Amino acid sequence: MVSLATGGSREVVGSLHFAVGRAGATRLSRTPRVSLLIPIFVFALAMPMHFYIGPTRLSPYRLVLVATFIPCLVAWLSGSVGRVRLPDILMLLAAMWGAAVLVGVHGIEQGLQSAGIFVIETFGTFLFARRYIRDVFAFQRMVSALVLMVLCLLPFAIYENVTGSPILIQLFGKIFSVYNVAGSEPRFGLRRAQGPFEHFILFGIVCSSVFALSYYVFGSSARRGGRLVTGFVTMAVASSLSAGALLSVVVQSLLIGWDKVTASVARRWGILATAVTAAYFLVDLNSNRSPFTVFISYLTFNADNSYMRVHIWHFGMQSVMQHPIFGIGFKDWERPEWLGGSMDNFWLVTAVRYGVPGFLFIAGGLLSVCLGLGRLKNLSFDVAQCRKGLIVTLCGLALASCTVHLWDAPYVLLVFLLGSGMWMFEPRNWGSPAPSLLQRGPCGTTEARSNRPPVRRRGRVAAHRYSLTGKT
Description:
Elements: H1 2-5, H2 9-24, H3 37-44, E1 49-53, E2 56-58, H4 60-78, H5 86-132, H6 136-163, H7 167-173, E3 177-178, H8 200-208, H9 211-219, H10 223-239, H11 243-261, H12 268-286, H13 291-297, H14 303-322, H15 346-374, H16 381-400, H17 409-420, E4 438-440, E5 446-448, H18 460-468
Antiparallel strand pairs: 1-2, 1-3, 4-5
Helix pairs in contact: 2-6, 2-10, 3-4, 3-6, 4-5, 5-15, 5-17, 6-10, 8-10, 8-11, 9-10, 9-16, 11-16, 14-15, 15-16
């Protein structure tokens, strides 16, 4: 990681430490403590190995989820992680409905194992984030872990681009059972980086999930170092050479740009939503194709992929119409012989497998988190930055998921991010601003800042701020 930063490595490390140190300053009443399970879980997502206990395939991140499921469930039921809210109910229904569908379609003998894993990866992951990310400090530590994971994967991704050798899969494969090496034609003379995941686009999607988070959480605290971190994240996404992953970054960049340009505009997000809705209906009225068909036709690197995705959407929706309630589980979906079995659309796969209710529960969970967080007011600057980063990230992932299916670690990461923002619904978790994060009001009184960036000060205040980060 240090070698990648070259002349800016000190800035990158400094920004990471600064963000963590400043987050610690927001809680004066007690010393923030963050469970080591957060970085352990994050790095476990990037482990490509798996093993079997009986017929059940387990991986490092699944071990963490299985070990913590009961404690997290008890904490949730007891109310110690906050009161039950709409996203909790929707994610619980998504897990229960999906499990019921798998057992109903495949029978108890075959479906029970898959149902259990689905519950653990859906509701278990959500509860894990609910329990262990309870304040701004824990959220920023989570972002730090995600950034470090991506920075650690970047040199291996570049090596894979240049040499054509999936080095991480090969190294882990010497000892453990790992994913198969994904085959693909080179793009722009480079091999698409697979990283530690099952497919190139999954690697790109995972890296793209850190783009807006790193920008808002680190970029606001140490401008040069924070922007450098975001640049490295973008390099990791680009190494996958995947249109879906790049789409996620483009969407996040556009939302960040809108946030900056319209900072003084009232109801700016409502204006943006209205503009997007109007554009959708405008395309619908002026094209002989559906807006979604038009959308996906421009989001691939070649015309063949675009053509196939249009047919996947067409026959996939036919399957949904034929099995609208209970879906087909893991059964093969009906399609022409010339059309492959891969369905590159997470939302479509969800509707095909678990029916329309399953789709509505998961999509509703994502919408309820984004819309609910968007309605919060009077947030401190740090909490507001965390909220922006999370909502922008979820919007980018939601749109990119129309061009790629998410499974295993990338799916778990999406659910984990949904649960990671639930602490913001509880004002008691926002914390009290530290002296270094206060602004002087009239007559020498102190007043907490809201959504304004920190004021740079020198002298004793600056010395106090640096002491919080461990710098001398």
